[in-house]
Amino acid sequence: MGWFFRRSYTHTYKAKDRELMDIRLKAQYFTDPCKYEPNIFRRRYRMQPCVFDRMMCDLANYDSYFVQTRDACGSLNLSTKQKLTCAMRMLAYGITTDFCDDYLDIAKTTAFEIFEHFKKAIWNVYHETYLY
Hints:
single chain, mainly alpha, 7 helices, about 65% helix
């Protein structure tokens, strides 16, 4: 039994400033006035801002995973916009999960988890209307 407790793991933790990244993302695309014009939003997200907003509301209503919550320490988790931006960038540009870490400060495993939830939610919310 003692061998189980002596095993050490070499997992490193990198602190993420999710609130700062959320403020930066909102300042770039989601506030009025924002840093980029609406045509830049369309080019980067491959959709109009109103479509993104509708999708954000629909997915947050379907899956509570997309709703921003607080962790056990009281810090805010990723916002709905951060999660959808991660998933949409992966789809629009075909980027890997590592790029989400560079741009949005989202860990690779978290980006993969976001994409899995996004995939299931999109199918379940929109398959009858748009995906037949």
